[in-house]
Amino acid sequence: MIEPKIYYPEVTINKMNEPFTIKLAVTQPGPVIDHILETTTALVTKDLDEIDNKFSPLKIDSLISKFHRGDNEVFFQDAMFQSVYNQCAIAKIATNGYYDAFKNDRFDPTDILLGWTIETEFQKHLKPLLVDPSIVGVSLSSNEQMQLATKTDSNFAWNIGITNPDDARDILAEYNIQNGAIATATMNSADHARHNFKQLTILSKGLTEAFVMANSGLQDSTDVVEGWIEHSKLTGLMIDTKDEMTMFASGVVDNFALAQM
Prior knowledge:
- The protein has two domains: 1-142, Roll (T-fold); 157-261, no CATH class.
- It is an alpha+beta fold and 261 residues long.
- The chain is built from seven helices and eleven strands.
- The protein is globular.
């Protein structure tokens, strides 16, 4: 059977100081798909503005600013605020307290917000598009943080390349993902000497978890990260400051998959 040709229309929305890219995998491009993409873009853009208005610490009237000023009523009155707050509490437990949005007695969800936003918007506006007969895949991403899905009866899969942290032209590994999320965190070169990793990639069902695990693990010790990998049965790869790459799948670190980059 000849597989149909796949087209990839996309739109990038610049909000919250991040590029959010909506990408579809379709078999029949045309005016209908263009309209779907335009409508979805408008809905996501509206939500991103709402999220920014609620969680930007730079806006004096945002919910997070009001919360910092002691207005605890916002927690009980806003479902979105409660959702982010609860995700931060879960992330603190999952990382044994290494990720802590509550330190210094000040709630700061900044380090979880991007992953949560992508996953939430994806489930709300992107995944439902798979009911269209010509849409076989949907994706919402920001740089190397992605949530992906494929139509149930389709053989299509998203091919995601993991690049060398020192050379973006060098593809170190590729993952074929039908449904799930992938997050890659890269350490600033100036900080390599103070940490164990250059780069950490985590695959998970949801981007909130993948995003937190990748960014928190990037700054922790090898033993601690391997403990997270085993306990949460994570899949991905890590690159240490000696340029050794280690693969892991379903919580098992593959000691035979060590490679010099």
